[in-house]
Design goal:
The complex is a heterodimer of chains A (200) and B (579).
Chain A: H1 4-26, H2 35-41, E1 67-75, E2 81-83, H3 90-94, E3 100-106, E4 113-123, H4 132-136, E5 142-145, E6 157-158, H5 160-163, E7 164-166, H6 167-173, H7 175-199
Parallel strand pairs in A: 1-7
Antiparallel strand pairs in A: 1-2, 1-5, 3-4, 4-6
Helix pairs in contact in A: 6-7
Chain B: H1 11-14, E1 19-20, E2 29-31, H2 36-46, E3 51-60, E4 65-73, E5 81-88, E6 93-96, H3 106-116, E7 118-121, H4 196-202, E8 208-210, E9 213-215, E10 218-222, E11 234-240, E12 243-250, H5 258-264, H6 270-275, H7 282-297, H8 303-332, H9 337-357, E13 366-367, E14 370-371, H10 377-402, H11 406-412, H12 420-425, H13 431-434, H14 442-445, H15 466-490, E15 510-518, E16 521-529, E17 537-541, H16 543-547, H17 551-555, H18 560-570, H19 574-577
Parallel strand pairs in B: 2-5, 6-7
Antiparallel strand pairs in B: 1-2, 3-4, 4-5, 8-9, 10-11, 11-12, 13-14, 15-16, 16-17
Classes of the chains: A alpha+beta (200), B alpha+beta (579).
Bound molecules: iron/sulfur cluster (2 copies).
One iron/sulfur cluster is lined by residues 69, 94-97, 99-100, 122, 127-133 of chain A.
Chain lengths: 200, 579
Amino acid sequence: MYGQGLLKGLSVTLKRYINTYVDDFKWWGKRYFNAEGIAHRSSKDANGIFTVQYPEEKLPTPEEFRYVPFLVYDEGANGEKNIRCTSCGICAKACPPQCIWIVRSSDPVTGRPVPQPAEFYIDADICMNCGFCAEYCPFDAIKMDHDYELASYGRNVFDKERLMKPASYYAQIRPLNNAREETARAEKAAAKAAKAAVTN
Amino acid sequence: MTTPAVETLDLAAKFAGVTADTRPGYAGWIVPAEALTQFASFVRDELGYDLLSSLTAVDYLEQNQFEVVYHAYKTAGGPGLVFKVQIPRQDPAKVASVTPIWPGAEYQEREAYDLYGIIFENHPDLRRILMWEGFEGYPMRKDWKEAFYEEEAKPLKSRWPEGRHTLAETRVPFGDNVSFKPGFDPEKWTPTDPEELLYATLRKYTSETKDGITTDHVLVNMGPQHPSTHGVFRAVAMLDGEIVVSLKPVMGYLHRNHEKIGERNTFLQNMPYTDRLDYFNSMYNNWGYSLAVEKLLGVAVPERAEYLRVIMGELSRIQNHLILFGMLWNDLGAYFTPALYAFEERELILDIFEAVSGTRMMCNYHRFGGVSRDVDAASLEKIKGLVFERLPRRVEEMNRLLSENEIFVSRMKGIGYLSPEDSIAYSVTGPNLRAAGIPYDIRRADPYGIYDRFEFDIPVRHNSDLLDRYLIRMDEIQQSLRILRQALQQLPEGPVLTGKPQYQVKVPAGEAYGRVEAPKGELGYYVVSNGKGNPYRYHIRTPSFINITSLEKMCVGGKIADFVTILGMVDIVLGELDR
Ligand code: SF4
Ligand code: SF4
């Protein structure tokens, strides 16, 4: 019969339409504006309305999510910021669009290079969020951020001050990565200490 | 891994003047320029290489020669044949066109002309294709320098250790490399119609008088800003009433000279750039490129990484096809209901990509010799949930929603026919070729990765019209799910990368062609290394660009309203078409 295919298709839309209400009733009051509801709507069992009401609701960012990088600093006992970056330049060399700019510092007296950046810029408008800098930095000093709300009216050239974030923040957004790296660093330090003990 | 060997065939003995390419790391045959036409016919007719996969040029500045490189394959399967023509690097550099032999070479030759200034004699319509008419210079030549040029290759010295940031926009864009055509004075210039050359190719008619009324053809521009063209794409059609008499696509609006950027980049830096080609399928774009470079490097990929590549690649294929259905319905006027249904499933797949690779669309997931990171348990669970439970149901629902709809069927059945012979001749690949009854799929014809381990069928349909091109994609989703089920069951434990992560890879000199069956068709990367940190040549044979060659053939004789659907079914994406 002509029109059967059309009706078949329309039955799908009708079913979907009804499903939105069924799901809303099933999840009465819990479907929107809370973490559980959002998780349900992005799970394999999601039915009915799919939309996340951004900005009132936000999808959780997975650990590996990557956005414009930041520089990690360790907090000292007196609140000083010990930047981990040694200005080795690897990230600047690996960066595909070449948006990392680093000025190496040197000792004012001897003129010898000091393992710390004097200036560090990331041209965030050019950054393609590839994650190479974080992937290849040998000192866990630069990491990809989760903060994606960077819209602005002007250019976003981030300087060292703007880029620095504490290690605790890193541990909070990437707990698994952080734990893995801490173990690796501890092992390395232990191996070094053992070696030093042997040579003494 | 099965690396397709080049046919062990002594062409030098069979064909006078042809010599084997003996440069270290190179393969194939060098054909004298005068013998090209004959040789190409011989290769197609006597040896059976009916599909010209890729045609491109390389500028060997030091040797002072241009090389045109051809990759031909058999649709019956098996390894390919590479041959090259070397010509002196001087203007005018001339090579015979192979378009009369393989019509699929038409746009590829135009591209080589556009970017290298090589003139293909006897080409039916040799105009620029990606750059605009009136552009001066040939940007892929090694001595051509782009705006904001700093150095031959990255990493740039200005970034470290004295990297004081300067805003790009405060610099003079062209430095001192602005050049104009001889005799061109920008002060005195008045624009002539730059499109005259294009329109002239379409005016193949004489106005006629019927019953005392003079009839004329109408020239219609669709695009570049047109909702049906899926981006900034333009088609110029000559119409007789509603019927298309001739049609030319105009492209390049999104051209950024990806290949030039690629030749300035280091090998690894190109990986995230490939994401931006077909931005629906970055997982697959990564794959083709890693395959080519891995051939040069000779590294093996660990088992688990091979499986992850397949899993991500097939998930990518499913969402690509779903989006195509949704967008097709948009084009046909069923505004956004099917499209949004398709988007739901796609979102779930992208959630997985995000959790695994870090980004939804620009995945940058592959590394030479593996993948960047392992998949976590939660994501694996989610993939299983999708593959074993949700997707089969949802795809079936999509099928019910669309496949039998009478309006849909009447708009598709018998429309946009392209004969199987023409499909091969025009180098059509992917689902559209298989809808013409040719069971050619690189996953089977020339397996890469671990595809030879899975049981799956290559779906074939025979009518070669829009309906079959639609249905074959439904079939392919089913096969992808089948592959995914096997891959998920077999997924072994183990490392996902061979060797240590490295940002500077040492690639031995030579050439390699890596090709994969991307969701849109054959995606090939031709990479030449001269042992330095960046590729000497980096060429991409994209399915969108080459499948569009047959657009005119499919549209002529049909109604202009069907153009929209035909174009939709070619499944183009401008990031890849314009590069
Ligand atoms: S962030 Fe890391 S890679 Fe970059 S300069 Fe600092 S230490 Fe080196
Ligand atoms: S994420 Fe990529 S583009 Fe951005 S700063 Fe790091 S290396 Fe450069």
